């Protein structure tokens, strides 16, 4: 077992809190950020106009950007709770456990982020009549990808952070 | 902060609980934001938006007000102005469509405003009139004769818009189906395509329609042929499963108006769906009561048991619903008369 310095313990604590709130807020803001970015960067709409159009359609029937944000955020909230309960409950005395868990959760989060970002970009860049269905399937796909990402992260952690011989 | 420094875990149980509580509060705040921004609470803001310089703002505001329904009565004057005076056709149609869900009398006012414009010298005025009348849906039933005439307009866009409006109104079904069948033989491919689109997506199929649409499978215009295929692949009104699913949809508020509109177009064939429709004569929304009365009236003699509930609605607070109820009673009684007389004649 590696002894923990108070500095390491503090860093892990801050990381857990940031991870928790980052997953919640990031999951909610990700689709909205992509919508605005596509308007400004791809469609060359001035930011002020893009922002106005975005706020206008937040609760508009047939658009409901608010609901799209919530649907995408839901699996990230699950990830946030996992961060809190899994990483937050890691023993302070063995930072290797916390670090391995951190890499596992980072793998899950990164995988979800890439999948969600790619889906939103695809829907916005190549719109079609059934495109909005992706928003309904996305939470399920993200939840399914979470254990896969976590497993990959843990596998990388085993390679990068081997337990020192006793 | 919460005793984490002395905790054996990275976060102390107390801090974990506090974060979870924070998450619950955050979700609660999002819920509050949604609640304040939708339904009747949003009406004052949406009325302000109807006065915006940007047409897209006025359009979205009108759409949202339509979703709110009768609780958005305060928006009626602004919506009426937008439906009849706005220079943007999309703003006109969205305001008219919203009024249909809020107040039937106001929707009829819009109809009365646009009907004379179907004979305007300016083709653009006639096109807009057709589009707005279509956006009123079945509420614009009295405009059907004028729209049938517009189906012979020299301007192909007027003819196209007239057919779209007729399909959107849908009732009474026989003359509308006849006009759409005529549209299938129009000299303009745009009008022919519009007519077959209505059979593919909006208007229920009948045997004469199937006969008329079948040759279009070989139409040289590929999109017309594809739309004809979609129309013929669609479930038929005489399909019991289709009728059953419409009956189920009637019981779910999200698709209620669509299902009632379809049943009203099916006429006597929809008789089996009478029971789920009857309670809707007492619905809170005038549009639903109106559509229920229209659907029951179209069922004719198979809706005999609806006469008593219909008579109870003769004093409906909405004059347009009252009119539809009176028409439905008269229609059912008229359908019963020949049935009764033939029954008497058959007796020795």
TrEMBL record, chain A:
This is Uncharacterized protein. The chain crosses the membrane at residues 20-45, 65-90, 102-121, 133-153. It comes from the Bacteria. Keywords: Membrane, Transmembrane, Transmembrane helix.
Automatic annotation (TrEMBL), chain B:
GO terms for molecular function: oxidoreductase activity. Keywords: Membrane, Repeat, Transmembrane, Transmembrane helix. The keyword Cell membrane does not apply. Pfam families: HEAT, HEAT_2. The keyword Membrane applies. SMART domains: EZ_HEAT (SM00567). The chain crosses the membrane at residues 18-36. Catalyzes the hydroxylation of the N(6)-(4-aminobutyl)-L-lysine intermediate produced by deoxyhypusine synthase/DHPS on a critical lysine of the eukaryotic translation initiation factor 5A/eIF-5A. This is the second step of the post-translational modification of that lysine into an unusual amino acid residue named hypusine. Hypusination is unique to mature eIF-5A factor and is essential for its function. This is Uncharacterized protein. It comes from Nitrospira defluvii.
């Amino acid at each position: 077992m590696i002894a923990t310095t108070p500095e390491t313990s503090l860093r892990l604590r801050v990381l857990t809190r940031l991870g928790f709130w980052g997953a919640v807020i990031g999951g909610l803001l990700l689709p909205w950020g992509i919508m605005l970015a596509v308007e400004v960067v791809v469609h060359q709409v001035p930011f002020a106009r893009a922002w106005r159009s975005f706020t206008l359609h937040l609760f508009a029937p047939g658009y409901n950007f608010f609901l799209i944000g919530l649907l995408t955020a839901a699996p990230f909230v699950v990830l946030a709770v996992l961060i809190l309960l899994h990483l937050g409950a890691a023993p302070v005395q063995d930072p290797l456990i916390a670090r391995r868990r951190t890499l596992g959760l980072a793998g899950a989060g990164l995988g979800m982020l890439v999948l969600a970002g790619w889906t939103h970009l695809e829907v916005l860049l190549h719109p079609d009549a059934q495109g909005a269905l992706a928003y309904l399937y996305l939470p399920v796909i993200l939840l399914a990808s979470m254990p896969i990402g976590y497993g990959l992260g843990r596998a990388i952690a085993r390679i990068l952070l081997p337990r020192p011989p006793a | 902060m919460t005793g984490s420094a002395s905790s054996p875990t990275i976060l102390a149980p107390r801090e974990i609980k506090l974060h979870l509580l924070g998450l619950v509060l955050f979700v609660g705040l999002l819920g509050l934001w949604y609640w304040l921004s939708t339904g009747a609470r949003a009406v004052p803001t949406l009325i302000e938006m109807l006065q915006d310089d940007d047409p897209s703002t006025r359009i979205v505001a009108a759409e949202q007000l339509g979703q709110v329904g009768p609780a958005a009565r305060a928006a009626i004057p602004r919506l009426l102005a937008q439906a009849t005076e706005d220079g943007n056709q999309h703003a006109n149609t969205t305001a008219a469509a919203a009024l249909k869900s809020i107040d039937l009398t106001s929707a009829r006012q819009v109809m009365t405003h646009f009907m004379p414009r179907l004979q305007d010298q300016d083709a653009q005025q006639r096109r807009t009139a057709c589009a707005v009348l279509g956006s009123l849906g079945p509420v614009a039933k009295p405009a059907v004769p004028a729209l049938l005439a517009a189906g012979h307009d020299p301007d192909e866009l007027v003819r196209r818009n007239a057919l779209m409006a007729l399909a959107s109104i849908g009732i009474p079904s026989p003359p509308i189906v006849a006009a759409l069948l005529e549209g299938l033989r129009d000299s303009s491919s745009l009008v022919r395509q519009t007519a077959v689109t209505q059979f593919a997506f909006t208007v229920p199929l009948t045997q004469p329609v199937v006969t008329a649409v079948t040759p279009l499978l070989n139409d040289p215009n590929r999109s017309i042929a594809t739309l004809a295929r979609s129309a013929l692949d669609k479930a038929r009104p005489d399909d019991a499963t289709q009728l059953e699913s419409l009956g189920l949809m009637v019981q779910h508020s999200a698709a209620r108006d669509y299902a009632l509109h379809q049943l009203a177009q099916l006429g006597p064939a929809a008789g089996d769906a009478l029971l789920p429709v009857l309670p809707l004569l007492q619905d809170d929304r005038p549009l639903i009561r109106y559509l229920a009365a229209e659907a029951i009236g179209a069922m004719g003699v198979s809706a005999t048991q609806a006469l008593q509930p219909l008579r109870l609605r003769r004093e409906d607070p909405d004059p347009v619903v009252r009119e539809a109820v009176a028409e439905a009673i008269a229609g059912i009684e008229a359908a019963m008369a020949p049935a009764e007389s033939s029954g008497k004649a058959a007796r020795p």
